[in-house]
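Practice set, problem 2.
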Amino acid sequence: MDVDCSFADRERKALGRRWVLGIVSLFLATLAAFAVLCLHFPHVLTTPELRAVYPMRLVRALIAGGIVAAAALGALAVAFRRGRRLGALGLALAFAAQLAGGAWVEVETPVARSNHLGLDWLALDLLLLVAIFVPIERAFARLPEQPVFRRGWRTDLAYFFTSHLLVQLVALATVTPALVLFRWAAWPALQDAVAGQPLLLQLVEAALVADLTQYAVHRTFHAVPWLWRFHAIHHSSEALDWLAGSRLHLLDVIATRALGFVPLFVLGFAPAALAAYLVWVAAQATWIHANLRWRARWLDPLVVTPRFHHWHHAADPAARDKNFAVHFPWIDRLFGTHFLPAEGWPARYGVLEDAPPPGFTAQLVWPFSRRAG
């Protein structure tokens, strides 16, 4: 049985339709403003690996187009009262971005490497995910009445912002334990053999090795009470969509990724294979949380799908501590934790008992409080 959306959710959806011009204007203006800031302060706001490959003519054209579109939509929102306050804010922010130099801010190269925030990564990823998943979820929604701005979206967006802005910290915390503590386990002959394989084979092997490791880590986070306090944050979402997967406590993210990277480092997969795997895992993590009704039965035994992972988030005793795999569901079959009813989706999502409080700041400190667990 599918969950019914609440009256409040239907009201949010109706409000979103009325405010659509203002919402889109403010969204584009915000991204454009972020981009202009990145042009002004590339050494502290941009990711070195990304800025080295940016096609700057295209980037500048997108920034200019974003400013123009934000201003035009903001003016229409004000004129047609389709979220006029948001439209006015979007219009003002677009003008501010243009007055700050717009798309034509000069960047002195080469840009010096320094400690940085990933504002460019945040803006780029947010733009791509919204452009891809919001239309798909509207067209093929499992819960058509669930609005884009459903309950808890602000909390999830705060997690999205934090994880992307702190990309350097997360990357450093992910890689350092393997480099420092497990360098002794690296065998050059094995690493050369692994890195010499075809890229596609390395990609599949990396996903398999990572999923076996993450299965163990994930199951441990469920089984050990003080670790569950951190992971319960992820399960506290009561509505799933493309943004819900971002709700992860920072210590949960760092521990899971750091432990998952160890065997990848020890085995010596080529950088290109690791980069391809990171793209794969990011895309799949977004997809399996999405509000999508798609179901290809032939995929169920092969890869983790939205229905499989939605049952992992179910507030249902029968589904508790099931479906830990991220990529391959047969791993759960192998270890006796597979749960996928022949038909149907979860009726509710969330934590069965001792749920974390709502709100980003409250959730960050909750695992450390006496009230947790």
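Problem 2, part (b): a different protein.
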Amino acid sequence: MAIPYIIVGILLLLLIRFFLKVNSNSIVSNASNKPVVSITEDEALIKHKDLIKLIEQAIDQKNYRLAIRFYYLNIIKQLEVNEFITWEQQKTNEDYIQEISKENIKSSFKDLTRLYDFVWYGNFEIDETKFVKVAANFEATTNLINKK
């Protein structure tokens, strides 16, 4: 006679656990959830990778979209290294534009940001001819940043 009540109770617990996504072990053991620090792909690339090498590899593979992404991340890295911005995971590209005080660098970075957004997020295809022009803009901006 108690079996239907046990089954209903188990189903209710499973439903509650499913909807609340609560770790039942932490409730029973009274343990607290420790925050997990995760490194995003962008952060790993900016902080720990040789972006120039990644750019060259993407160009060799004729993956110009990816090369533009790496160029853009390299620009952000150079801005941080030269103390024009403070890189933080939660900041947007618009935050970085506002942070740059030198107008010529700000203007150039703003143009590259717009281009990057179109190519990376807009999924616009870019051929080799267009890429050569874009790469020149990234190189010019990199030189401008490193000139201080």
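Answer key, part (b): The chain has one domain: 41-147. Residues 31-39 have pLDDT under 50 and may be disordered.
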